[in-house]
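Re: your question about Acetyltransferase, GNAT family

S., sorry for the slow reply, the queue was backed up all week. Below is exactly what I fed in.
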Amino acid sequence: MEIKQISAEETQDIRHRVLRPEQPESNAIYPNDDLEGTFHLGAFENDVLLGVASFYPEKSAVIMNHAQYRIRGVATERRMRLKGLGTALLAEGEAKIWARGAEIIWCNARIVAVGFYEKHGYRKVGKSFVIPGIGEHYLMTKPNPNKTVDQDC
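Result:
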């Protein structure tokens, strides 16, 4: 498996099919996909794209840290689940984010993904909430392990 930087457009097919199959394809285009500082990663096997993840220099209204990054659109082909693609994408994304000086990473994790993020050091903040048309989520955060920062939420 190889993790490479990809374009926002390259994420959209897997995002749509895995995360939002009942919605219009246009819903796989996220705000800030082309924002300066945003990057997208793809997991490839034999040059076939099998998983994607996007990382945004975006602030949560709930988190007070100054230098924040958001994870969004982590998705792998169903047949590739539990084979380490999500872990590899997350690890590569985190390394790039920490190298950019971020204090904290956050995401809105679907209920089914909470265990995945907890396994990688993220913690739930507050109560669950519903994103209409998508489902129940938790805000989850992970502070930069190389910095001493307050995690004020």
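DSSP finds three helices and seven strands in the chain. The chain has a mean pLDDT of 90.

Happy to talk it through on Thursday.
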